[in-house]
Write a structure and sequence with these properties.
The structure is a homodimer. By secondary structure, chain A is α+β, with helices and mostly antiparallel strands. Chain A has 14 helices and 23 strands. Strand 5 of chain A pairs antiparallel with strand 5 of chain B.
């Protein structure tokens, strides 16, 4: 049963988000604290994400595997920074049945430690490198405050782990995955992003460098959508992962890890949806087209035509990337009113609605309505419908990106002084690009005064921090000034 | 690094199995007691299984979802039989970080309890039924003795859960899934199976009826490959899952659950492989064809032809079910000897090997060798190769099934007396079909005397137990005699 009342976005963004998640049946709460159930409508989006992203990851030479969900607690402690970051969030298994375990196990919060231990068993020679592995799994990280998809005690993700002969190759991989994620998010999620390097304060526990992708949501807060970590040989030394080089010398491997999660679903909702409900990029839609017959007059004939049109669209879609498995539904339910149906499919984010009634039958045409521009009803002749539908799906995919891109642009500002920063962080600007001195204390001070945090440090084409010699930091300092991207964040 | 020594099957079946698992790099041991890592070669088989089975399950109207991995311990106790069966095997989370949890959580051994609780929140009316849901997840069940794929403290599976308006519809679903599994195993795993109902002793904790699929391995022991449970309204009563009927009356729902797991990979290995290594049904192969160029003479030309042949095969495969994504490798490595390569790809279970050297170049032909009939090397002209390869993949798929079928037939015997049973259970017969009185004590007595257990009680076309009035049980009793299938088991 779907209830019909979404809190307007402008009134309460957080409630609006929750209303969409629950009413579009993407996820639901459970009696397990902070853990959600991902419902079929939400899981179908995850399956689309998995299918598309998995192909792209495999195309870079990475293979999938599956590692145990339970990790000896002692493994976590082998890298000092890592354990400090994750230990407080770990769910700990102490018993099996009523037997006490000798060695406690943690439910994986991430799998570096166990996988790195196994790397040390598997990797012996330069011939074994690069070692490129990925897994699609659930992880558990206990949080104080949780929200479906955005921050949940359990979530689904992919985590890739790689070993390389040297620092350059590992850095190249970490950066390659950042770019791969970025392209995926733009092409499939229709979300334009910021990317760069995390500040020391925000980076992954145990990493030398964390590359990150951040996106601006409609409430002008930034959401971290994916990260890629460069570990250097830190974990290699902790787990003794060494290889014999071609010259017969022992070397440490250099490593990376990288992941994206079901959090992206939350990002898609907050980037595109509106007060009528979910707006989904067509490439992520679980149902692309709904045909709503208006039942007055010759019902049987209308249904027959609807079926023909459905077949035509599916035929046309067969050879076309992304739309090969196009899902089309004819809603024959006579117990529901047409207006109710429209509302329903808008709530569910179905990209295209086709209406056909007695008059359309006569004129051999239909009405076509796109979810992102509901007020632009179009008349389309039957003959052109299949082609038009595919065109509109493509158009909508691009239109959502363009809209989000314009929003991002309108809410991003480069500024130069602390006065400007204070003013624009208060008057509703989302993203502020400003000079920064790289000091932790300065970062903390800006956060305290404005609630803005450093989302990332942008990089140039050579993936180097953008230096601003001669500029002054917001705090007034003048040494080692670089560019930083500030925003409030999830 | 792959070592080259597989213990012969006849010498030590269990060691033979382990050698294949490790040397074909399907799985490896980990420092987590009884938990394996599924390596890329093994995981690729699981991905093939998932893809094919997921389609078939969805085609019956089931949708995928994801439920939390941690379940409140108290939920498990709500169904008395269920908790008795699973509690001793459950990994229990008592802490998060150093905070003690008020309510202990178990890592899901199966998800009936949590999912049924949620069903009680979601299902209100007959309009909500049938409710058909499935998830692909990891589960943890602690075992005394473990073996990769066959019995592991953690494994991957799918678990389907359904609710229905009445007993008939639920029974129909439980049986439908049994048949779906059976067809899948025959068509994709190339494994002929027995199916039927579990005896009271062997059924799922909490079920009224457990339908099961069992297959005979090459050591003549039976492996349970999948189960489908009919719960009646037992769990519905424990979790208060009721609906308002069309007549506005409150009714309990009737339920089922059903699952298959990574154990099937173990079954595939033990059903088909040989002393040279893995033999994989082509529909499960991660690499279908390897082209091995014999490098003497015009190396460049040989490689060019190999590439052309590869392209041709891929072109031919494009429109063909199962082979659309055919994987073909040209092994150009000059540091390895040809014989070593042959051995390697036999170990890995690559269905088809193509050899091409200077003489074949001259005669515009190649040698084609099929993994299951290594001694039948065939000469094939280049022009016919693409077609021939697809034909041989199909042939091999069917040949493996036929071979396993013949093995099953040769090792199954219908018998009538205790004397016969004793004799044939000792002299190496795998499966004995015998009359049984349905008494637990008799089942235990037969097991004690022969190590044979009841694998299932066969059913007729109406899914009814096969009655044998007038026959005598093995124990001498004469009442309520039915047919039972006995075997030693994993």
């Amino acid at each position: 049963m779907i209830k019909h009342k979404i809190t307007p976005q402008a009134e309460n963004f957080s409630q609006w988000y929750q209303d969409i998640v629950l009413q579009a049946q993407l996820a639901d709460y459970t009696p397990v604290k902070g853990c959600m159930v991902i419902l079929p409508n939400g899981y179908a989006i995850w399956e689309k994400i998995q299918k598309e992203l998995d192909q792209r990851i495999k195309a870079t030479g990475v293979q999938n595997a599956y590692f145990p969900t339970l990790i000896p607690e002692s493994f976590l402690s082998k890298e000092a920074e890592h354990v400090k970051g994750f230990a407080p969030q770990c769910a700990i298994v102490t018993h099996v049945g009523n037997q006490v375990l000798e060695d406690k196990l943690v439910v994986r919060p991430t799998s570096e430690t166990l996988i790195h231990y196994l790397f040390s068993q598997w990797i012996h020679s330069y011939r074994d490198l690069p070692y490129l592995i990925n897994q699609w799994v659930n992880v558990v990280r206990w949080e104080m405050k949780t929200r479906p998809f955005l921050r949940s005690n359990e979530f689904l993700w992919q985590e890739g782990h790689t070993c390389h002969v040297d620092a350059n190759e590992a850095q190249y991989r970490a950066q390659m995955m950042l770019k791969l994620y970025q392209k995926f998010m733009q092409e499939i999620l229709a979300i334009p992003v910021f990317s760069g390097i995390k500040s020391e304060t925000e980076k992954f526990a145990g990493a030398i460098q964390t590359y990150t992708i951040e996106a601006l949501m409609q409430d002008k807060k930034a959401l971290q959508l994916g990260t890629s970590h460069y570990f250097g040989n830190r974990f290699a030394k902790a787990f003794k992962i060494q290889y014999l080089s071609q010259e017969n010398e022992l070397h440490w491997v250099y490593q990376t890890s990288w992941g994206v999660s079901t959090r992206m679903i939350g990002g898609v909702i907050m980037a595109h949806s509106d007060d009528r409900g979910l707006v989904l990029p067509p490439r992520l839609a679980f149902l692309h087209v709904v045909i709503v017959p208006i039942f007055s007059g010759n019902k049987e004939l209308i249904l027959k035509v609807a079926q023909n049109l459905k077949d035509c669209i599916q035929q046309e879609a067969k050879g076309v990337d992304f739309w090969r498995d196009i899902q089309i539904k004819i809603d024959q339910d006579e117990s529901k009113k047409t207006g109710w149906k429209f509302y329903q499919y808008e709530l569910l984010g179905v990209p295209i609605r086709i209406e056909i009634g007695p008059k359309e039958l006569e004129l051999q045409q239909v009405y076509v309505v796109r979810r992102d521009i509901l007020n632009q009803k179009k008349i389309v002749k039957w003959d052109n419908l299949a082609q038009k539908v595919l065109e509109e799906l493509e158009n909508m995919q691009h239109a959502l990106f363009e809209k989000a891109h314009a929003f991002k642009k309108a809410n991003t500002m480069e500024i130069h002084t602390w006065e400007e920063f204070k003013m624009h962080s208060k008057n509703g600007m989302g993203v502020l690009i400003a000079p920064w001195c790289q000091k932790k204390e300065c970062e903390a001070w800006i956060n305290e005064k404005t609630k803005f945090t450093i989302r990332c440090l942008p990089v140039d084409e050579e993936m180097q921090l953008i230096k601003k010699p001669g500029k002054k930091c917001l705090c007034g300092d003048q040494g080692k000034i670089i560019q930083a991207i500030f925003a409030r964040n999830y």
